[in-house]
Amino acid sequence: MTEDLTPAEAYAAAKARNAEQATALAPFREMYEFGLDPFQIEACQALEAGKGVLVAAPTGSGKTIVGEFAVHLALRQGRKCFYTTPIKALSNQKYADLVKRYGPDKVGLLTGDNSVNGDAPVIVMTTEVLRNMLYAGSQALSGLGYVVMDEVHYLSDRFRGAVWEEVIIHLPESVTLVSLSATVSNAEEFGDWLDTVRGDTEVIVSESRPVPLWQHVLAGRRMYDLFEEETDHGGRGSARREVNPDLLRLARTENSRTYNPRERRRGKMVREADRERERRQRSRIWTPGRPEVIERLDAEGLLPAITFIFSRAGCEAAVQQCLYAGLRLNDDAARTRVREIVESRTASIPTEDLNVLGYYEWLEGLERGIAAHHAGMLPTFKEVVEELFVRGLVKAVFATETLALGINMPARSVVLEKLVKWNGEQHADITPGEYTQLTGRAGRRGIDVEGHAVVLWQRGMDPGHLGGLAGTRTYPLRSSFKPSYNMAVNLVDQFGRHRSRELLETSFAQFQADKSVVGISRQVQKNEEGLEGYREGMTCHLGDFEEYAGLRRDLKDRETELAKQGATQRRAEAAASLERLKPGDVIHVPTGKFAGLALVLDPGIPAGRTNGHRGFEQHDGPRPLVLTAERQVKRLASIDFPVPVEALERMRIPRSFNPRSPQSRRDLASALRTKAGHITPERHRRQRAEAADDREIARLRAALRAHPCHGCDEREDHARWAERYHRLQRDTRQLERRIEGRTNTIARTFDRIVALLTELDYLRGDEVTEHGKRLARLYGELDLLASECLREGVWEGLGPAELAACVSALVFEARQSDDAVAPKLPAGKAKAALGEMVRIWGRLDALEEDFKINQAEGVGQREPDLGFAWAAYQWASDKGLDEVLREAEMPAGDFVRWCKQVIDVLGQIAAAAPRENSTVAKNARKAVDGLLRGVVAYSSVG
User: Fold this and answer.
1) Which end of the chain is more exposed for a tag (fewer CB within 10 A), N or C?
2) Residue (of 755, 832, 850, 842) closest to 793 by Cα position
3) What residues contact 736, with CB distance under 8 A and at least 6 apart?
């Protein structure tokens, strides 16, 4: 208390209070009803002292307060502040927050879709917009004092992460950078890099959650705590966290239930008493259904809850299951309020579109307090779900993991159905970082005393593994930075080639690569010491064992080589047999998932690449499209034909046959079985092995037998040491190559890109040509292809809808590759232009191969995807939403998102296209008008 202070202490306290009142932080703190946390105060004080800051803290901890203090400082100093976010939804949300605090006159918004008050001192924008402003040398940068990079850990994103590094590297030195990140395990490393490229940067890491999180496993009727907490005497925190022994026993019981033949004893099965005990145990263990989980959470007061399901279809199915189960989480007053909000927010959507979008089924779920949230939904619908959830009018949301990325939508509980998700290539366990991000939504600051993460019991679950996920805080930030064609011309234009190269070597990617070299060098030294020991172990008194071991390796390598040659020859014979196939041939597929009788519909495509991803999908022969006897239409690969194939019979394929029609497939498959079901294919005879007659193998075997070490009694012991020596030597050479490869990697990639651009006359030394200046205005994955299409006049003479169809191929990427049926394309000029785009891409792809620009490393031009061309053409031609979505077979949210991206690139093309003797710019603007209507126009989030 104040009266207990000595006069000196009272004077010091008063002096400290007066000093704080003179700071910018004092009036800022008064703007909030709650007190600031220590990490927020520390970060704000560092900012006011003129330092940059990196704040790494858990989801929901309030790190955006630091960003808002940067806004406060900028306005107080009469300077500008740009607040950047990774996604438009976050930009819209932050814009609304800042307008509420500072008024619409002082805050602007710039995204790909919206431009509001662009001259305001505070502008919220997506990170790409700021990157484009930096390259364009925009006047809006004058007077810029602060840049806030919210969710800066996005720089790990392999598709968009490079943009964050471009901004950090290219921002003027006078700008103070505020980086806000999720809790990452290498924040200090990232801070060291920021210190190098941006100057004095304070790293503030907070690992404490504002709301404690309790972890549970729901198995059957019982909710188990994941951890058995042993708290300290004060009861404030846990001294040790052990996995709940009840859960471990449950897992052991579950895993031991599977019948094991070894349990037979003298012909008798396990005793009846054991089976009865097993039945009782099984009655207590099951994975609860989705409605059952929500009812359980509701009964225990754990709603609102977000259930993460790693599938869009799964989210929609979960809502339907809850509706069919009669679940109602809202009373009549809440139902009325929900309907009022929904009708207000969707008033601009025409009635006929509401029917197409499944509005009434969606509304029924919302009125009951239940909703889905995923990228396939119409953006307006997603926004309504978010608003109702925050208001407490939706209490159960089934969402994909995209909801975990930044949107301010906290819950009391988070449910994880499974710990495995599809990562685009395979089903993989979620990482500790992903688990932390998902469960970070649980616990609402200022509302909940504690948050709850509930994992549903699944057969084969390992509680120890789950405990490791929940107890680990490993979420390292890894750079995904790669130079691009657009980046190269913009850098050379501003700084020249030499300075650009130096700038790229300051990237976080190169910083991490250089640091990793130190550890690899140490490993090389250890390996060299080990090699000395192995050399002693293989010493033989009869002769040079290293020479003898070399002969053994040569023999093994030669045998392996001949085996490969034999396999290659068999593949070549199989490929030749495939080339002889014709439509109507009946064949027997010898192996693979679709083994058995099949009818050839299309012999396939020539050898070579089929999808533009070098190193991913090479085919050394045709890929026949077949109808199997089980009514499936599939395009097979050479791997399905390890031996040559011959036509067993011939059949006529009806002209009316449609591979998309189940009835057509059923009728033709029936005819196939009738025609050839009785035929037994001949077995392929294996040929004599090449090794039996090989002279080199005979020579090596003779040399081995004649070598002095061959007669050594300890020959096999020496051989084991020699094999270890060889393996370690091989590993050491690989490490040395890695050291060589990691030094100046970014700069070397930049050099190759510059060389290709010079070949195409985009660059001449440090000069950027007219073609290069056009490329500098085109941002996107296929920037060079778009520039080449403008250069060669591919889009001249196209109407607006035809141009929209062509541009869609630059942005669209199908979620799943389906090459069984070619995509539907607009006829006439658009189809010819799309064909020409693919031809140009083929030329660029070959050129990239010549210059060693590798798509597997994230650099280069993928093949244009024509899968959205028909939908874009139809929509730009003023067709109805029902017809377009039905033919596109695509959710409304995906359709809107792809349209927005096409609109964005059309805007770039309108700005970059030639002004004289060209219709492209005018038609690009018309195409934007044609696309920006209906659901696309009234969806404010892209």
Assistant:
1) N
2) 832
3) 524
